[in-house]
Every structure is written in C-alpha cells, then in structure tokens.
Amino acid sequence: MAGTGVLPFIRGLDLTLNNLEDDRFPDAVEDMTSLRWLKLTSTRLKSLPVELEKLQKLEHLTVKKNCVGSLDVNFSQLPCLRTLNLSRNALTSDHVPAGLFENEELTTLDLSHNQLSDVPEGLFKAKSLLVLNLSHNRIEIMPSQLLMATTDLLHLDVSHNDLDALPPQLRRLSNLQVLILSHNPLSHFQVRPLPSLTELRTWHMRQTQRTNTNIPTGLEALVHLSDVDLSENELTKIPEGLLTLSNLKRLNLADNRIVDISADIEKWTQLETLILSRNQIKALPNTLCKLTKIKKLYLNDNQLDFEGIPSGIGKLVLMEIFSAADNQLEMIPESLCRCGHLKKLVLARNKLITLPDAIHLTELDTLDLKGNPDLIMPPKPMEMIRGSGVEFYNIDFSLQHQLRLAGASVPKSLAEEQIQKDPVARKMRLRRKKAESDAESAKVLKGMEDVAKSKNKDSESGGENLNDSIKAKRWDEALEKPPLDYSEFFDEDVGQFPGLTVWEIENFYPNQVDDSLHGKFYEGDCYIVLNTFMDEQGSLNWKIHYWIGEEATLDKRTCSAIHSVNLRNYLGAECRTAREEQADESEEFLELFGTTLEYAKGARTASGFYSVEDVEYTTRTYRIHESQINGIHMEPVQTEVAILDSRFVFLVDAGLNIFVWYGLKCKNTLKSKTRLMAEKINKIERKNKATIQIFSQGTEPLEFWQTLLDDPEALEDAIPEGPPVNNVPDDFQPIIPRLYIVGLGMGYLELPQVEIPGHKMKQEHLQTKNVYLLDCYSDLFVWVGKKSTRLVRAAALKLSSELFAMLLRPEYAMIHRVSEGTESQVFKSKFVGWDDVIGVDFTRTAQSVQRTGADLNKWARQQETKADLSALFTPRQPPMSPQESAAFALEWNEDLEKMEAFVFEGKKFVKLPEEEKGLFHSADSYVYLCRYWVPPEESDDADHDDEDEPEEEDQCVIVYFWQGRDSSNMGWLTFTFSLQKKFEALFGEKLEVVRMQQQQENLKFMSHFANGLIIKQGSRKQTQVPDYKAEPEFYHIRSNGSALCRRCVEIQPDAALLNSNFVYILKVPFDPLDKSGIVYVWIGSKANADEAKVAENIVSSLYDPDRFSVQILNEGEEPNNFFWVGLNGKKAYDKDADFMNYGRLFRCSNEKGYFTVSEKCSDFCQDDLALDDIMILDTGEHVFLWMGPRCSEVEVKLSYKSAQVYIQNLRAKQSERPRKLFLTIMGKESRRFTRCFHGWSHIKAIPR
C-alpha cells in the first residue's frame, strides 16, 4: 500500500458495518499512532485484533455487536484506555482477563448482553469506574467487595440477570445517579439502602417482585429522583414513599394490581409522564388536575368509565398524549378537548356512544377510536366543513386560509359573521373586558393624549412636514427587494465581527479563504474582500471590494462582481462595491493588508466553463436488484460474460455506449427502472451523446459481447451457447453503505460515521460545509460540499485512498470524486428520494401496498398538496376607457407605414383586395404584413447641438397570421415553409411572426381596423352548390373590455339572440341568387351610440347600395314583414347584459404539476374553453362549472371546491348579487352560459 502520510494524524476512526472477520482487520491501523477513539461495531470480529496493542494513545474502544468470545489483547499496552464497550458479544466470565481492570484510567465499562455467569474476577480493582453496565447476563451474586471498591460509581445497570439480593454495601455508593435493577428475582432484597443514595436520579425495578411491604417509606431525602419504574410488580396501591418525591418527572406503575389512586399525588408538581396501564383503576382523583406539567398520561386496560375521569382534566393544558384504550368509557369530558397541546388521543375498544362537539376543534395527529361499534361522531360545525381532508388531497379550502395565501384581507362581513358563530370566543372576550383594570385604561388614555399633542405640534410647525409625508416616493425608493436566499453563498455569521473576510471565485461560487492567505492574490483568480468595522455610532458597517487578476477568466470576473452585490444585499449594507484591478488598487484597499500585496502566478481555483477535451470513460457493469429503500439497487460487478444471470437486469456503462440487458426471468419493474436510469445517465451525465441499446437475453448485439471481453479476438469462443448460469445466491443482501464525515482539527484528522436511522440515507445528511466519504464496498465516493475548505478537501482525498486500501475490496472497486450539484446517478441512487428514477411504482395497487402493513390513510393525511387559488380573489380587470383606447390606436396607427394582406386559397397565398382588409372568414387563413416605423434612440451626448444632422430611422416588420376556427392547419404549414422563408430573406432579424386564432387577436393588430374585425362564417371562395339559395345573414357587434376589442361576428339568424344592449345587422335577400335585398341595422334601447355608427359604416362597406336598401331600426320599431321573417319569427329576447360588467372566466388545471386557477382576460371567447380542464364562468348572476371531456377526477373535485370558495368570497364582497353554482358539460350549455361568449357557434370536433 502506498502510504499518503496521513495515518499518524488520524485521531478517530469508525469502521462500523465493515467485514473484518478472518484476518481482514486492516494492518494500517498500527500506523495510526495518534488514534484516540476506534469503533468496531458489527464487524464480525471473533477476537480482539492484536494490532490494538500498538495504539498506546487509544482512549475509547467500541467493539459491540460482534462475536468476540475472548480478550487476548494485553490491555497493559493501552494505558490511556478510558471507555471500553464490549456489549452484545459472546464473552464468558473465564475469558475476561483480570489485567483489564488494572488500568487506572478506565471509567466506563459495558459488558452487557454477554454470557457472564459471575462478575468478572478482578473487577473490584477498577476503582476509577464511573459507569458499569452488566445487564442481560446470567449473574447470580453481586460481590460486596465490588461495591466497596467502586464508590465513585455514577451509573450501575445490572438488569436482566438472576440476582436474588444486593449486598448492603450498596449504601456506600453515595454518588450514584442511575440504578437499574429490573428483571431480577430480588426476592430477599428490601431496598433498605435506597434512602442513603441521596444523589439518585433514576431508579428502575421493573419485574422484581415488589409489593407495598418491601419498598421503603422514607424517601424524602431523594430530592433529585425524577425517573421511577416499578411496573410489572404486585403493587396494590401507590407506595407511600413515592408520594413524598416532589421532583418526580416520570413514573411507570403499569402492570400492577392498583385499584385506587391516592389524592396525595398532587405533590408531584413536576410530573410529566404517568403510566398506569393494565391495572384495576376505576376512578382518578380530582387532584390529578393539579399536575399542570403533565404531558403524557397512559391509562390503558383499566376499569375507567365516564365518572372516573375528572371533569377538570382540561386544566392539564400541556398534555400531548392521552391514552385510555380498553376501558369502559361511554363518553369523555368536554374539557379534555380543550387541551391545546393534545396531539394523540387513544380511546380504542371502549363503550363510546358519542364524543363532545369540541372534538372537531382539536388539532390531533392521532385519533384512535377503533373497537367502538356504537360510536356516533358529532357533526362538524358548518364553518369547518371545508373539504380539506384526504378526499380533497389535504388542501384547505376555507376562505380565510385561501385569502391569506393570496395576500388578501378577510372581508369585514365574513369576519363579523364568524365572531357571532363562535360562542367560546365571545365568552373569552367578555372575560377579558371584565378583567380590564383602571391602570390599563389610564395608560391607553395617556398614550392617546401624547399622540394628539405630537400631532398638534406638527401642525403648528408648518406644512413642510406634511408636504414631505405626502410627497411621492422616487422610483428607486419604491422598489422592493425580491426575497432572495443568499445562504447558499455566504455563512450566517458573515460580517458580524470586525475584521477582514476574503472569498475566491471557484466554479461560479465564492469560496472563503483562510486567514493565513489574506494579501496573497493569484493573477488568474478573482476575490471578494469584506472589511467589517465599527462606525462612530458603535454599530457594524462594511466596505466591499472585488479584486480582478490580469489573467482571470471571464466567468471569474463576472461572478466576483455579481457575488459582491449579493454580499451587500445579504448584509443590508448601504456601501458601494469597489472594483479593484491588479496593479491598480486604490489606497483604501491597500491599507486593508498593511503592506504591499503579493501576486502569484497562475490560478488557485478552477474555471466554471467547460473545457473541450476528450473524456476517458471506465467501463462499469451493474447488476440491478429491487430495493425497498431506493426502488433499485445498482450492484457493481466484474465486467465479464460470466456475471450474467437471467433473473436480473444488467446495465453496462461504457461511456458513449450504454447497454441494458434483460434476463428472461427478470421482473418488469426492474426493466422499466433500469431503462429510465440509462436515459438519465445519458441526458444528465453524457449530454445526450451516448447511444443506449436495450435488448433481451438471446438478442445481444456484437458490440455488447465485445465490451464484456478483454480479448475481442476470442469473441466466438467466449459467447455462451446456452442460457447463463444462476451465479447470484438466493439470499444475497447488498452491503449497507457507510457514510463518513471528514473531520479536520489542529493537527489531527477524524473519520466518524454519520448516524443514519434505519440505514436510509437522505440528501439532507450531506451538509454543504463538509466533505463526506460514502463507502459502498465496490465504490468509494468522495462528496465535496461547495462551502468546504481546501484543507478538508485535500485531507478527504488522502483519507479516501487510505480507507480504500486498508479494507479488502474486489479488483473492480473504484474511487469516485463527486462535487455538490454534479452528483452522478449511481451516487444519487444510494439516497432515499433523491431524483428517483420512478417516483411512484405504478405496477402496485393500493391493495397490494396495504398488504405490506403500510397505513395508506396515515400517509395520505401527511401529504402536502400544493394549490394556487389566488386568481379567484383578485379584482376583475377594469374596462379600458374610450379615451385610452383611442390613444393606443392613434399611437399604433401612426407608427404603421404600410400593411399588405394575403389570403390562403387553394395551395398558396394570394394578395387580398384592398376593400376586403378587415373582413375575415372562419374557414380561411390570412397573413397581414405590417411595417412599423421605429424612432431612433436619443443620443447620450448632452452637448450635441447639431440639429441639421439627419437621424437614422429604423423599421420593424410584424407578420400577423390569422387562422379561423373552422380552417385547417394547411395554411400555417404552407406559410412556414414558403411565405415566411421569403419574408426572412427580405427583412432578416427585423421580422417578427405572430400567430393568432379567431377572436384571440393581438390588440395592436385590431387597432388597425377602425370598424373592428368583421368575421363571416364559411370560406371567402365558397363553392356554390347547384341548388344554392341565399340565406339571411345576421351579425352581432360587441366590444369586450375596450373599443379595441370590437368585432362584428356572424351568428345564426335567431330572434332569441337579440339583446337590448347591442347593435345587430340583418341582411334579408329578396331572390335566391342574392342579387337584391334589404339590410337592417337594429339598435337596442341600451346600445352604445358609437357601435351604432360603426354598424352603419360596416353596412356601407359590405353591401352595394344599388342592390341592397338600408334601414335603421331602433328597438321597438321593427316592421312585421321581412325583419322577423329573416330571424325565423318573433321571439322573446334578453333586455339586459349585466354579464358584460361582471363576466369572468377562470381555468382550473393541473398542467403545472399542482392545482392552479388562472383567469382569462376579459376578451375571452368560446375557444378559450380548454378540453383538458375545468372552467369557472361568473356571469354576475350564476357561477358555472364547465367540464371539459378530458378533465381528470382530481380536477373535478378541486375545481368544485374552488368554485364554492369563490362564491363564498363573493357573498361577502357583493352581498347584493348572490350567485348560484351550476354544472354544465361540453355540448350541453344553456343560453345563460353561451350568451357570455361573443359569436357562440358549433362545437369543434375533439381531436383524437
């Protein structure tokens, strides 16, 4: 092994979970002469390695959970040993050498869970012992000599032995704090020495044949005793001695024969946990309510009924757990539900009939009511029925919650209504008013007088202050800083202490520099320098500089400037960031370092830019296993043909070639997950440059066999003829990964392991300030945090080499360096929930998951579903005034230099006649080429007075593509491949293409047509059939939100579509060939006068006056001849259009990955109804929930609750206009729904 020279500096090492049996203990441990602590937990050792004798500075040794049967090490060679943990081994009394206890430094000894039949010989020599654990053995006698010698003991645990008595010398242990005697016969032990142990804090005697007669009564001297366990004994009442313990915090009296509880328990004023389960208790004393600090109360399996629980139990305001299962409770006191901290309530298997109504006011995490067949839950209060449970994905649809999320205030009417409905809150207010004192009222009055006096002084001083207060803020003062998080770049304590702090830029991020390197700058690097000092007022102030080297790369220069501003924002400093360049530094900057700066050639840090170089890939082969923790486990194996097994999937990573081999007997879930893993490796790590080949057993390509073979020439002989042999044992278990954290101190190194519950590593275990080693046996990863120091990184690389070499590993094992933010997929697969290949296993059903024992309801209740309903609470978009619309139209038309129009006919675009501009057909596509004048930019030179110099004018070109709702996409395809190419060649970068659908046009485009857009049904060159007969044409003129959104849309001739608020055009032909006829302009009684003029202009442009006569009709003046005939008869129609003032359209969708509600603009149309989503339409009178044919069940549920919240909010804000909720589906819309959409027409065919 090639040493790195770091072994003598290692002070701590944790080799837990490594296989060190059969002489696998690393010899390198001998060279760790400075080792202070060593952990060898679960390493399969059968004896202590002799290499330990060389560790003369070793202080703490842990060898638990092994198979050690003898101690053959000469412990005299370990003079500094203080702690020895040998628990859970196979030691016997004969194999514990007496020389072990001659060490004067030994203070902690753990021999629990062994096979000791006697106390080890010579143990009494360990006079310095403070902690002794001999539990879970077979010891029968405790020698008195031991207790006489170890008088300094603080902790003694001899539980789970066969002790019949303890020597009276126990009273000599005057410093003893913990005494654990549980699970021993102790039939002849009266515990008489107990009152002498005045420092005792913990006393456990579970299952030791205790009765009320063999427990001392005088325990008043044990003032420190706080934890007592006397469970599983034969007590019939609480021992009198316990009633004198005033500092008791935890008491366990479960599994006894206690019938009555003494009222003297009120002396336990500090009690936090009381366990009385499995006794014969029928009632609890009222004094229990005085134990106000109690947090956990267990009363399971007793004989309690409703009368047996004190009514004032609600006074235990700190109680978190109340467990009373298996009793005879018919009801519980209502005050129990008033415990504000109650999180767990267990009432299973009782005789419950109902519960108090206040049960719904609690915020319980667990409510167990199983085994109560007659239980009827009380109904929830109306204000709590909000659909926020599992059924609605844990989204809180209460109006108050949603208003708070949207940043809106709760309506006053709603707040008042809630106050009236809460009698408890009303009582509390009345009590507070009654309890107000005269002193508090006087304080309020005095404060009001002071405020009035200060206002009078301000008014007398003049109007200057008033003017200053109402003066508008400057634009930069009104800006608000965005809530950015700079903690990723800088530590919390940055700038909190006077002095210098320096960062260097590395890979786009600032990296703090050690103090010893201040003043030394590399020419290829950039630095940020922070000077923290105390100003004249005694408060902290800052100066920030960023230094740029002559040879620094562009990314370092840019990031130094950016992060210096980030640092200023992070500190809230008001100073400017000063730029300092090499050899041109300011005097202020040079003074920070005292002497001249020291420049060094080259660069210390790496650039963040990618360098173009050929990457060398090492071929790695992984066998894929199922994993309950991470979905899949990727086990590295040797790259050879013999490793193939038909029960598994194999992934061979050869760099730019990735092979996925499916065995004939492998599971489908492994196939899909491995395929997705290969795609992720290609996308993220290979930038989509790799080729992925997926094949099954028996269909392997030639390249696959060549990759598995070292000698491609022997290809024919190496390819197996038959199926591969099953070479993986059935009981194969992957090796548990070990996560080490690299510790660096003043002259020493440590390598402890991170404690991971259940061996489930998570991304949160990796802290950005540290460096970690992840040992997976075949792979050793070195993870480097962004904020780790350079010295720790260097030490980690050396330690990784030593750790890799000191343990026995296969030939294909490798060391991988991983940087934070650029982790490989193989590394991520070792952690739970980090970029899972498949977040959800879709091959499993809810029933199959439940059979595994998982509580799906509990899991569902813990899920937090994101939802955004803020659009429902924003005010409606106000309409644009006529003056504002005219101003926009004037500006845009002044810039318009030329407009050319084309229409798609046949298979090409032809020029549109000038008189047809502004006329569109729903079955056609149009192209409008608009050239706009762009004013030149103003010169920055203020002294420029040359007025005769001509300004350069510029031009931009916008192509508007208009597509009718009945036209095909052929027009758009033809435009993109023909006409657009020509425009790009003519105008280059000045060209902009805007695609628009019918009634979804651009405002700037619509402003170019004074009469608005005229949209006719059908095609411009519609072919006439032989039996053609001219039909009446009916047009509806309407403006949505502003005059710019005015359209004249052809609709079906039907008198029921008339409305007194609009203007209509009706053409009635006199002959079948449409050569003559009459045109009516119908003006509603409430119609806009401007729209009446627009209608006359449209009629004059559409129809030849020589062929068609025009008649202007006001509402109520309709002739009985052609007008009503053209509309298919006279019918009732709407007289108002309030929906124009209240109409709003919302879209409810899950397309962002979470449920969100967004609002369409006021100029919405029929095609805004999304087929995949749910729409909410507010007409001012009704609220419609429109369901698209492709919406999901989730969207239906959440949209329904969203509509209810919206109506509830409107009920508070617009109480004079109550809304009702209606449901409608596509194709079944009513007239009340369709009238809100201008030009409602047929339903488009749903694309498949």
From TrEMBL:
UniProt-listed InterPro entries: ADF-H/Gelsolin-like_dom_sf (IPR029006), Gelsolin-like_dom (IPR007123), Leu-rich_rpt (IPR001611), Leu-rich_rpt_typical-subtyp (IPR003591), LRR_dom_sf (IPR032675), Villin/Gelsolin (IPR007122)
GO cellular component, as recorded: actin cytoskeleton; cytoplasm; nucleus
CDD domains in alphabetical order: gelsolin_like, gelsolin_S1_like, gelsolin_S3_like, gelsolin_S5_like, gelsolin_S6_like
Keywords: Leucine-rich repeat, Repeat
Gene3D superfamilies: Ribonuclease Inhibitor, Severin
Domain Gelsolin-like: 510-590, 634-705, 754-827, 1157-1233
Bias kind Basic and acidic residues: ranges: 450-460
Keyword Repeat recorded: yes
GO annotation (BP), single: myofibril assembly
Residue ranges of the region described as Disordered: 450-469
Keyword Repeat: yes
One Pfam match: Gelsolin
Domain of life per record: Eukaryota
An example Gene Ontology molecular-function term: phosphatidylinositol-4,5-bisphosphate binding
Protein name: Gelsolin-like domain-containing protein
Organism name: Tigriopus californicus
